[in-house]
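Sequence in, structure out. First:
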Amino acid sequence: MKVREALFSKSWLSIAALQLTLLACLGLSGCTQNKNTANNSTSSTPSGTSASSSAKSSSGDLDACKLVTKAEAEEVLGEKVKDAESGPASMQGGSICMYESPDSMSARHVTVRVESPNFDWNKYKEARRIEGEKMQPKRGYIRPVSGLGKEAYFARHVLHVLTDHGILTVIIFKDTADAIAGEETETKAEAAEKALAQKAVARM
């Protein structure tokens, strides 16, 4: 099991590195890989009521690997991916799921994170806003996304969605150019994150 760590940087040069490990790393440290989850996520799960009931783990937390499947991650990245790495999102619960390229030299991945409804959405969002204002040489932004969950926004090219069932975060690293692009306009990776988030929200 890999142990990853990531820190947000004030420099745009480090945003690419952030995209390699952000969210996929949070909560994975000290966890063991959940092979059962990985095997169950190899085929697409239909959205709707039936998916909602099966997306919860035995502990009652939403299983991030059932919100976005391995097949869907492969479609987004345009290549086969390894079985998912999964673990708890934080001490408060939730879960995190990462699908990586099998190429050891590649950083391409799809990561889904679900925090419990007790997660402080407003505090985290404000921290992302302040972080963006301090970034150099180009500042970062909180860019609202309409029509997704109760509220949603992009920050550092990462999609955050507030729902009644918890906080959903989706990150796709596919192209370095997207990772280091300015935050004023939507990138291809962000469009893909929205598409996956729509499926995931329907399954929550």
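Second:
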Amino acid sequence: MMKINKIREMSSPELEKELGELKSELFKLRFSLATNGLDNPMKIREVKKDIAKIKTVLTERELKGEEPVVAEEPKKAEKKTASKAKKEATEGTEKKARKTTTKKESKAE
């Protein structure tokens, strides 16, 4: 388990690198747990806490105005915009479908 003071001494790029390593370690631990090969299940908890500490320090730095080095955020933003575009396109067709059914119903009356 990493100490918060040690984390605060690290630079933002170092923290980003460490965050990536911890995320891959967490993936491996979860995979091992699923395949019944994990010796120490508490290791998952420790890694998750370390990830949270690093994210907290990065967020504190961002709020102070320091320039954080973020490698994963743009990818997530692109996925969100793509899903939003799909959702908006779907909503547009649903609205058209509602209008046409309303017109048909009013003509039938």
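Remark: The radius of gyration is 24 Å.
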